Amino acid sequence: MLEIVKKTIDEKRQGEAFSGDPSMEQTIGKKFFIESYGCSMNFSDSEIIASILQAEGFGSTKNEEEADLIFLNTCSIREKAELTVRKRLTEFRKLKKVRPTMLVGMLGCMAERLKSKLLEEEKLVDMVVGPDAYRSLPALIQEAETGTKAVNVLLSREETYADISPVRLNSNGVSAFVSIMRGCNNMCTFCVVPFTRGRERSRDDVTIVQECQDLFDQGYREVTLLGQNVDSYYWVDPQTNHPIDFAMLLEKVAKISPLLRVRFSTSHPKDITDKVLFTMRDHSNICRYIHLPVQSGSTRLLQLMNRTYTREWYLAKIRRIKEIMPDCAISSDIIAGFCTEEESDHLDTIDVMKQSAYEYSYMFVYSERPGTLAAKRYTDDVDMETKKRRLSEIVSIQNSLSFESNRRDVGKIFEVLIEGESKRSDKQWMGRNSQYKVMVFEKAENQTHQKGDYVMVKVDDFTQATLLCTIVN
Ligand code: SAH
Ligand code: SF4
Ligand code: F3S
Fold first, then answer.
1. What average pLDDT does the segment 233-249 reach?
2. How confident is the model at residue 23 (pLDDT cuts 50, 70, 90)?
3. How far apart are CA 225 and CA 248, in angstroms?
4. Do residues 344 and 298 touch, judged by C-beta distance below 8 A?
5. How far, in Å, are 79, 87, 113, 126, 190 from residue 76 at the CA level?
6. For the chain, what is the largest distance between any 2 Cα atoms, rounded to a whole number of angstroms?
7. What's the CA-to-centroid distance between 194 and ligand 3, angstroms?
8. Own/partner pairs for 308-317, CB < 8 Å, 24+ apart?
């Protein structure tokens, strides 16, 4: 399979006549444009999709105006995410008027949630393809080219796209996502993901480690292992029958090279184990940063959300992380105004935020999603004004926690991985420390640093989102 991929792309590059499968001949020269929404998993999927399409002779373009195929890799997590995609579709309608042969495909979570209903609602859409059906894209494109609407939203219990080498789109050449599992079995009551992504399944460790090794060999210096719930990663080697858990996988990736930074996302508080924390502690290239979404600080709400932990349990987990790795940064996801939330629940959330001293948080108002357990069982009874007020209080608490965290860093020395030039000036480098904080510093006149290099810097000052540093020798 990979051989064919390489050959097809090479042939195209050399401008030679295509001599492969005649049914694919029409794809040569056709270009696809792909736009991604939602979480990192979706962005990572777009790289798999690009690989599948390139293998069939399609070329990618960053310019929608010259595309024969437009793909939107969509997100359903909140209503707003879906509205954004619908708005974008109206823009493509104009393009289609000028290029009537152009095909539009809806991929990802919104495709899975709405299925063929999308074709009725959005006349412009020619293809609807769910997250486990991307291998069938070339066939679906052929079908759509005949004027038939093409749909595949079958979810799989096995698909992990393990054998596909993603084409790195919009890459800085330094950091890359590596998908280690798909789906989610958790059934948090507010969440649409188990419905759009299906059952949880892990990818085999050998292809994961190989992909990370290949990235390292190509000059990448940071990989982020992705899954909705990485701590429940579990793979049994079919030859040896040896089980591999997330801590073991982390260790295997970390051992590729001390120069390769390893990150991961997302951890569910109920599943992150001491074994994972000790593995992090023992490998300095596994970054000191854990995204540990709390969702709410109220035990009553956590129960309604089916998060399966209490506030005390969560806070004990935070203490354990800090005990094992005092310099570990922690971030969170927080939902304001979930069903039945009272002022006292909201104050509990603020209290957990303060006790956890999060470096960052991603904060949202609750958005009821059709078909979820919360939509079926509870009433979305907190009015929008209250939701927004609580969210803005949560945001302002987070701003002060982030400010405090940055202030504590002033005077400290960190190792930074250079990701590129700073947005402001080509005389400055931008990179991150292990804790994922953005750092900016002047390039040294007499040194020849490059993207992907590690540099020691001292923090002099900070703005809301950036630590301002100088190089130390
Ligand atoms: N798997 C990850 C997160 C997936 S979705 C985890 O378990 O943490 C990312 C975040 O979106 C969630 O953590 C949650 O905070 C938020 N979210 C999910 N469903 C939502 C909804 N219906 N309304 C508002 N926010 C939601
Ligand atoms: Fe959604 Fe919960 Fe699964 Fe995260 S763990 S994807 S919030 S169901
Ligand atoms: Fe959105 Fe699907 Fe990710 S709903 S957050 S793109 S898993």
1. 95
2. very low
3. 13
4. yes
5. 7, 14, 8, 19, 12
6. 70
7. 10
8. 308/270, 309/269, 309/270, 311/348, 311/352, 313/269, 314/269, 314/352, 315/352, 315/355, 315/356, 317/269, 317/272, 317/292
Q: Which ligand is nearest to the CA of 76?
A: 3
The two three-digit tokens of residue 381, written as one number: 């009874």
pLDDT tens, position by position, 296-308: 999 999 999 999 9
Residue 102 to residue 403: CA distance in whole angstroms: 48
pLDDT of residue 28: 65
Distance from Cα 364 to the centre of ligand 2, integer Å: 15
Ligand closest to Cα of 337 equals 1
Kindly give the number of the ligand 2 atom that is closest to the alpha carbon of 192: 1
338 and 391: one domain? yes
Distance (Å, whole) CA 273 – CA 213: 26
Ligand nearest to the CA of 374: 1
173, pLDDT greater than 50: yes
- This prediction's pTM: 0.93
Residue 220, domain extent: 175-409
* Ligand 3 mutation target, pool 193, 195, 199, 230, most atoms within 8 A of CB: 193
Q: Are strands 150-152 and 201-202 parallel, antiparallel or unpaired?
A: unpaired
- Give Cα separations from 192 to 183, 282, 368, 375 (angstroms): 11, 36, 9, 10
What's 64's domain CATH number?
Answer: 3.40.50.12160
Ramachandran angles phi, psi of 433, nearest 5°: -90, 180
From the CA of 82, the nearest ligand is: 3
Looking at the DSSP assignment, which residues form a beta bridge with residue 235?
244
Residues with CB under 6 A from ligand 1: 77-78, 190-191, 193, 228-229, 266, 268, 293, 295, 333, 335, 364, 366-367, 369
Establish whether residue 193 lines the binding site of ligand 3, counting it when its CB lies within 6 angstroms of any ligand atom. yes
Q: Which two tokens stand for residue 302?
A: 């956590």
192 lines ligand 3 (CB under 6 A): yes
Domain boundary among 369, 393, 409: 409
Ligand 3 centroid – CA 38 distance (Å): 5
Domains held by the chain: number: 3
Q: For residue 191, which atom of ligand 2 is closest to its CA?
A: 1
pLDDT on residue 210:
97
Residues 283 and 426 in one domain: no
- CATH at 449: 2.40.50.140
Residue 450 has pLDDT above 70, yes or no: yes
Handedness of CA 423, 424, 429, 434 (dihedral sign): negative
Structure confidence at residue 447 as a pLDDT band (50, 70, 90) = confident
